[in-house]
Amino acid sequence: xxxxxxxxxxxxxxxxxxxxxxxxxxxxxxxxxxxxxxxxxxxxxxxxxxxxxxxxxxxxxxxxxxxxxxxxxxxxxxxxxxxxxxxxxxxxxxxxxxxxxxxxxxxxxxxxxxxxxxxxxxxxxxxxxxxxxxxxxxxxxxxxxxxxxxxxxxxxxxxxxxxxxxxxxxxxxxxxxxxxxxxxxxxxxxxxxxxxxxxxxxxxxxxxxxxxxxxxxxxxxxxxxxxxxxxxxxxxxxxxxxxxxxxxxxxxxxxxxxxxxxxxxxxxxxxxxxxxxxxxxxxxxxxxxxxxxxxxxxxxxxxxxxxxxxxxxxxxxxxxxxxxxxxxxxxxxxxxxxxxxxxxxxxxxxxxxxxxxxxxxxxxxxxxxxxxxxxxxxxxxxxxxxxxxxxxxxxxxxxxxxxxxxxxxxxxxxxxxxxxxxxxxxxxxxxxxxxxxxxxxxxxxxxxxxxxxxxxxxxxxxxxxxxxxxxxxxxxxxxxxxxxxxxxxxxxxxxxxxxxxxxxxxxxxxxxxxxxxxxxxxxxxxxxxxxxxxxxxxxxxxxxxxxxxxxxxxxxxxxxxxxxxxxxxxxxxxxxxxxxxxxxxxxxxxxxxxxxxxxxxxxxxxxxxxxxxxxxxxxxxxxxxxxxxxxxxxxxxxxxxxxxxxxxxxxxxxxxxxxxxxxxxxxxxxxxxxxxxxxxxxxxxxxxxxxxxxxxxxxxxxxxxxxxxxxxxxxxxxxxxxxxxxxxxxxxxxxxxxxxxxxxxxxxxxxxxxxxx
Length: 757
What we know:
The chain is an alpha+beta fold. It is built from 14 helices and 44 strands. 18% of the residues lie in helices and 32% in strands.
């Protein structure tokens, strides 16, 4: 292959990187932002004409532009004294007021625009690191470890607490999951973790206690501006530590500042506090608060009811398991609901698959769903009709066990009603009342159609249809989905295969696998690019296919969405996941002779960084090349929650055998290890201990440490991505990489908006 041809491939691959995909797929999904106290929502979408904001009145069944984008741009331009592009308005969210005005944050200022005259007024400076009440009247912030409350109408502030100190403060994220380095690198602060009551009169937050948690240490060798290296020490609990972070809940009255502590023992927060994962919530009428708690390893979980007036706490439901307990099939899911009657809708894998149960006030239990399939998400509950709408996967004969269809069932049990049967994945977002929900239906090879449905599942209004014509024009093709057998010869595994650009079935192509082993998620893409979820193809496969590789993703045993036993394979510690991936690719190649199994490589990030190296070490005759980035190569140095939940407590699992360094002597191929120097999540110490083991084993390998970079490797992204391409082109494709530079990749402003920056 000529240098010119390779440079052209690199250029095509660059154009398919994630930050460019947004220009190639228009209206990819609808993410509704419901207006408090209404059945109205707005959403932001990208069309061929640029970014647009849309308002939908679910009750009326109408859809319209949120405002005149050109007039709003001119209004902002006048008060900001700069040109504002109507196709790229300088904000990502809006506050739609009931009085005919819209408030936005632009140029670090809060601006109000009257929608009758489009007169704009600067209200004051922006306060991004605050959590506003549903009605917008109040906003909670943190200063010097304490809480303050701001009256948004007057900008007047009141201090609510005075005893906050470092490592024992209010409304903060645990250090190990706060993205401390990302916040510092990108210059923003995460807003407080607060759960407001529906009527905006009270809020619940926590006091986080990390004082007894062990310290983790990083060294920023090249701080901005130069000078001496700067250390970062922060609280980080690892497997077997005696102490993990805990939280104590408090209820604050907005008007008076009065505080009512929850009268219960502190709640463990080994990874993130309950509020961050919506494991604490208010009842619809604001009379009670509910929250979930667990023990180390999540073998015992409890649902609590908190009386916000007295602080009294009552346990409503308790469940135990010899395995870990989830509240939904993936890490951040919560399918637990408390009805106004006091009954509880409970999701559990007690049967081996995630299903719904109803607990009566008398403690009786009614099974609502059952079988060898999975209830995925509770969407809506109609208490008057006593019916729940949910998504489920794998119920229908011959169906894909990963793709969600819509169903409903009576809260009193009985036959299920099938709402959809189109073979797509239905990703739903309900209104706070549950009367309506947005359904984004897509598949890895079918663009998204977004519709509004009522609580019975009937379509009220079509909202958007994705347009991916530019993506196809760029050379992208959807993956092929295939089913093979695991290494046990019995269990079905689902895979995705991306063919290289300009595919010739008579040629033979090197194979690259992107791996993420779970256990908390699945990997092979289920939805169309940018339609949401964990999408391998959206992030990396498209670029590798453009370079000329066959790209494969395999959901092996030990990953999510297939039931308890399938996920619990991770607890065996017998490398069954490695054997599954080898077996899957070998089976795929039997009917695809264009896959060259003499040239198989693998890459992955985070847990995928661990797994890609693991495959190189445990299957050295099969995998010849790997790039492992941000890997947690030794879970004894990783989050206590991660290791203890999915593998076992310290004395119940062979963490030493799981560590990649233990098997360093088996390395035979070309391995590139990549890590951010300031990765405060999967810290670089695991990679460096693997490096130490490889050196002692006299093994050759490559190492790239990116100064100042965090877990996402958001600093130096363009460089290290190019180095990853080069590694596979040189060692797997057998070509000399061209002299090529990927354009600098800016920090994603939508990511900053998501985190409050």
